[in-house]
Design a protein that fits this description.
With about 80 residues, the protein is mainly α. About 85% of the residues lie in helices and about 0% in strands. It starts with a helix and ends with a helix.
Length: about 80
């Protein structure tokens, strides 16, 4: 059981880093690209990967909540909103 907890924590951190990378990359494309069509193609290409990372962060977070027997708290609500 301890291996699953460690794997879930490591995957959660990896997907948060990937999600941060995709957010920054999309912001960079939106702010620097002059041609809207080119920018839309670049952003649209990575949208499924972006949504997969969001779902993975949510799923691994739920797994960690189960392992650590935690309940929904104010901090968890802020993490989901922000």
């Amino acid at each position: 059981m301890n291996e699953i907890e460690n794997m879930s924590l490591h995957l959660h951190i990896i997907f948060i880093v990937l999600l941060s990378f995709f957010i920054l990359r999309n912001f960079f494309y939106i702010s620097t690209e002059k041609d809207f069509i080119t920018m839309a193609k670049k952003v649209r290409f990575f949208t499924p990967i972006f949504h997969f990372c969001i779902a993975s962060v949510f799923f691994t977070g739920l797994l960690m909540m189960v392992f650590f027997k935690s309940f929904i708290s104010f901090e968890m609500i802020l993490m989901n909103i922000g």
